Amino acid sequence: MSEEQVQYLLQQMQALETYMSEIMQREDAVIKLLQEATGAVEAMKTLDANTEYETLVPVGLGAFVKAKIQPNQKMIINIGAGAVIEQDKDAAINFIEARIKELEVVLQQFAVQKQEVAMRIEQGQHEMNKLIQANRNPMH
Fold first, then answer.
1. Architecture of domain 3-47+87-136
2. From residue 77, how far is each of 41, 81, 84, 108, 123 by CA, in Å?
3. pTM score above 0.85
4. Backbone angles phi, psi at 81, to 5 degrees
5. Minimal CA–CA distance to 24: which of 102, 32, 97?
6. In this structure, what DSSP letter does residue 137 have?
């Protein structure tokens, strides 16, 4: 193989490694969203419909304001693109649980993508090893 082919193979390998890194970063972001969503559902489920709660609401830079959660208070749910809707607790939980399922599907897709990229990287490494061996043992 020529030096140009070796350079091309190296560039492909670097691009695949960069792509793998991007997939892993996206996967980490989805895992964090999944943890946040799971925590939100658990917190909402602990709210008793007949009890008033006092909580702290962050207003930024480590500052909080006290707030009261009234019995059967509606939840405000961000549905995307800056839009929010008001829902009762059960509907809000159902909405977030549906988002959790979507995030789990995304994680599965990332796992498949990582596996495919890893296989392509392995193939590239195998080709590179063959090139190295061919250059060490040139046929006469």
1. Orthogonal Bundle (1.10)
2. 12, 12, 5, 25, 46
3. no
4. 55, 30
5. 32
6. S
Q: Looking at the predicted structure, is the pLDDT value of residue 128 above 90? A: no
List CB contacts of 117: < 8 A, sequence separation 6 or more: 16, 19, 20, 23
Q: Which two tokens stand for residue 130?
A: 């063959």
Structure tokens that stand for 51 in this block? 């009890």
Q: Which two tokens stand for residue 12?
A: 């492909």
Under 8 Å between Cβ of 84 and 78: yes
Q: For tokens 């695949």, name the residue.
A: 16
Q: Check if the beta carbon of residue 110 is closer than 8 Å to that of residue 23.
A: yes
How many whole angstroms from its chain centre is CA 55?
29
116 and 19 in contact (C-beta within 8 Å)? no
pLDDT single digits (tens) 35-57? 999 999 999 999 888 899 999 99
Give the pLDDT score at 14: 95
